[in-house]
């Protein structure tokens, strides 16, 4: 679930792209890159966290008033330098691109590119196939010609072709040398893409397109909303904004953005992430009272950080004390998006410290946003037991995750999903808790859609209900995709000298 950003400004953009990446760090911790342009591209990238990769001395020489940046959480390919984004090519024109999402039919498209078009793919990234297809369709015309309307028409045709051929999820920011900044969102709107405007004193405007609104306030951009499913936006070199929906299909924004991925201060597709998490906690507490009326805990403790918001409303609804009984070291990153199981397991104990005063001799109810592999929950329960809890209840604001995601969350195989292979009773025993309760799917959707100016009828929750909106995901295809990602990851881990 990478973070992407593109900025068109009247001043150099590199520093603002860096600042945006800091505000999108929660979406990807593996690698990051910044690319700017004037008459040529300037780029800098590396493996690791944004602060580890760039020094001011790296960022300031990146010239130009237009640029894009990316923070990566891999869902395809490996973890090597060649898979870092933004990607760019020099012919035709000079086009660069950053991608959030995952292209399901990448293997077929890659074969076509290699075997039929005899073109070279320099990475194992699905995003590269998208870049080549976009470049191909923009190959006519010249960058000397200055007709922005003409270019936008050509761009819309190119993106429409991508919509017809590329199955999966993709929110894209791109720069075309000599032309300007481009952004588009797949026709189902699976991954988020928001935009903002900053009016200058001279009346001109700067524009930003990003995965989330998180950096807008700091950079002085006013949030203007979301790109619609199937919408293309273009800011020409002279600063004119063009927007057009070229092909909308059934809108299916990913529900897991609200559950876990997005930062709580973001508003995505008209719904406040923070408020949706409060409603998740409220709905879950109402069910708890219905299903387990005699089991009122002494204290409600979140599995920090993401679950904090839902735990707050859960405790409020139950009339029980909310307590930060597990302290999370803020300097350690998110566990779930770490690339391998060894790193994830090690990390839970390393970053969380139980507080005896909040746990000992108490009936503790732990709220987490999700139980995916069960790594976090099992480890936390052990820690809370060690600190003397009398009984432990565990609730998850996300229903059981039983199916792989092929649209941008790196859970591509059922083998690693605890709920795909175990009953709730088995999971309860595995976690070592007295009561385990999951949110149900209806209550989750209700929590996301209850308020806000939005058009969400049914979010994508394929990981819970198996309803895959695109990519012709059959049982046979699932098996192929599971094997393929497993091979990718294994070879990446071998290169890193690390087991899975
Ligand atoms: O069942 P698992 O595979 O362990 O995954 C689920 C856990 O991972 C995430 O936390 P994470 O530590 O990534 O980050 P957070 O601080 O945002 O909660 C999520 O919030 C759950 O706690
Ligand atoms: N999480 C994402 O959006 C990943 C984008 C792209 N598929 C990659 O692996 O880099
Ligand atoms: Mg967590």
TrEMBL record:
NCBIfam families xrefs: purF
Residues annotated as domain Glutamine amidotransferase type-2: 2-238
Protein name, per record: Amidophosphoribosyltransferase
Biological or metabolic pathway of the protein: Purine metabolism; IMP biosynthesis via de novo pathway; N(1)-(5-phospho-D-ribosyl)glycinamide from 5-phospho-alpha-D-ribose 1-diphosphate: step 1/2
UniProt remark on cofactor binding: Binds 1 Mg(2+) ion per subunit.
Binding site for Mg(2+): 306, 368-369
Binding annotation for [4Fe-4S] cluster: 254, 405, 460, 463
Active site: 2 (nucleophile)
Classification via Gene3D superfamilies: 3.40.50.2020, Glutamine Phosphoribosylpyrophosphate, subunit 1, domain 1
Catalytic activity as recorded in UniProt: 5-phospho-beta-D-ribosylamine + L-glutamate + diphosphate = 5-phospho-alpha-D-ribose 1-diphosphate + L-glutamine + H2O
Similarity remark: In the C-terminal section; belongs to the purine/pyrimidine phosphoribosyltransferase family.
Gene: purF_1
Primary role: Catalyzes the formation of phosphoribosylamine from phosphoribosylpyrophosphate (PRPP) and glutamine.
Pfam family, one: GATase_6
CDD domains: GPATase_N (cd00715), PRTases_typeI (cd06223)
Family matches, as SUPFAM superfamilies: N-terminal nucleophile aminohydrolases (Ntn hydrolases), PRTase-like
Cofactor: Mg(2+); [4Fe-4S] cluster
GO biological process, one term: 'de novo' IMP biosynthetic process
InterPro entries in the cross-refs: GATase_2_dom, Ntn_hydrolases_N, PRTase-like, PRTase_dom, PurF, PurF_N
One GO MF term attached to the UniProt entry: magnesium ion binding
